[in-house]
Design brief:
four-stranded mixed β-sheet, 4 strands, globular
Length: 103
């Protein structure tokens, strides 16, 4: 059975806007994740979870993937607290830099 992920409904509009204005690294990674290309797993972009939005999420793996670019500089404490809150929901959290995606 699919696990229900609860989130703040007000985040839907923001998530949609983020999908429309993806960064180049997000676009590049999405090309590999979309359409169940990654071992048959279904990923979603800009997925609301709790009070946050993660860059990519796979329900079957209970896995969140976040890409850290320039917008994350100076937000390390916030990002760490956000990651801990998401991990407390039983979600595995992977963090990559934009350079990781390009290399």
């Amino acid at each position: 059975a699919r696990r229900k992920i609860l989130y703040d409904p007000s985040l839907k509009t923001k998530a949609s806007a983020l999908r429309q204005h993806s960064t180049l690294p997000e676009i590049k990674l999405w090309k590999f994740l979309k359409g169940k290309q990654m071992c048959g797993y279904d990923f979603h972009r800009q997925k609301p979870i709790d009070r946050y939005i993660v860059d990519f999420y796979c329900c079957e793996l209970n896995l969140a993937i976040e890409l850290d670019g320039a917008s994350h500089i100076g937000r390390e404490k916030y990002d760490a607290a956000r990651q801990q809150a998401i991990e407390r929901l039983g979600i595995t959290f992977l963090r990559f830099t934009n350079d990781d995606v390009f290399n």
